[in-house]
Amino acid sequence: MSVIYADFSGFINFLNLLKILNWFLYLVCCFLIKNCDVFNA
Question: Is the pTM higher than 0.70?
């Protein structure tokens, strides 16, 4: 059970990392293009 829980925990951490990367890319694109409305669709 502990191994399955560890894998699941790692998967959750992976999803959180993707969210952070997505947010970071969103900020970079907004800064470069200076038009966030394009990404709010």
Answer: no
